[in-house]
Amino acid sequence: MVAGRSIGSSRIRYCGLDAARIIAAFRWPGQSGSVGHFHPQPVPIELTLTRLLMFGFLKKTLKGGNTPPETPAAAPETLAAPTQTAAVSAPPPVVAAPETAPRPVSNPAPEQEKKRSWMDRLRSGLSRTREQIGGGLGGLTSLFSRRKIDEEFLEELETTLLMADCGVDATQHLLKELRLRWKRDKLETADQLQSALAEGLLSILAPLEQPLEISGHRPYIIMIAGVNGSGKTTSIGKLAKHFQNEGKSVLLAAGDTFRAAAREQLMTWGERNGVAVIAQESGDPAAVVFDAISAARARNIDIVLADTAGRLPTQLHLMEEIAKVRRVIQKAEPSGPHEVLLVLDANIGQNALQQVKAFDAAIGVTGLVLTKLDGTAKGGVVAAIARQSPKPLRFIGVGEQIDDLQTFRAKEFVEALFTPLGSGKNEAS
Predict the structure, then answer these.
(1) What pTM does this model have?
(2) Terminus-to-terminus CA distance in the chain, angstroms?
(3) Above 70 in pLDDT, residue 96?
(4) Omega into 219 within 30° of 0, i.e. cis?
């Protein structure tokens, strides 16, 4: 640090001075010419600022010159202060690190995921349908909260089932059974009637419970169809993970060459699951599926999931293209396809029945996948399918996560439909 510098006959110390002293030091000198004798009148502020700028220039000039002998002695003191401050301030981060490290607890997240069992997710996914049929308060709606069973009660129950898209056939069948139970078993309370309704619904859905068995063929070829927006490609990605969890090797065929980005979407699922995808930028979807079967046979793959272009059942010429894919599969593998899955969106309700009939006539549907049950109050369509188009319901989807697509089990479905989330029943399922 520069302590000072001689200027003429006076010595000006400019370091360590506050602003008031600097301004005072640069006022006009008295007529005697001495630095200590100042002019009594105030100096304009503009002139004072100008001199301050000159003072900065003077400071830089003096800094570049020869320094007095005491300058090196002052420098270590100035440098020592930051060093001492750094040494004092350094320990707090070291001490704080162990205190903040244990704060983020990693255990609750896995515990929460562990608590979210399939039954919990199924109950949560069927919440809207449950509110429509069975309500959210212990399985009792205002309808079931009544203590008296009469014809008016049964008529309101009939309306409720129809609103949940159970269909006329299934609704009439259920009400017929309930009336028989009411008179035969002398049911008196709505709780008893609700139990009878659950048993009747289980008897309707039980024939749909036929899990898909992968055996007897290698590769096992599964052809997957559905209209655009039904969740077909996403379901293929989830099915690939499902079969991988069973120890099977999987190969995907990007046969949907019609929809934009369908190939990229399936390839993304393949990368996520570590599964090979056979795809072409453009071309005949039947040729893509043929190449995939050949590749699976060469690589000794267990399962081939063949995607197809989404088609509306009313577009007969487009449905014929899917039929062509099936014929090409039979050329590549005479015993194939070993399973033809139709993906249905639960939000469409009764329209699902028309899709089942149309696709069945074109490609011979052998199983169903019902998706998006978590976004609709029309889960009763399962009962309508069971009564009018009893195809095996292989899988149901109740969410967007990769493990939210699971094998359909009628008993679990009915229990989740009448038992709200958090009831404590079958939490470990």
Answers:
(1) 0.69
(2) 78
(3) no
(4) yes
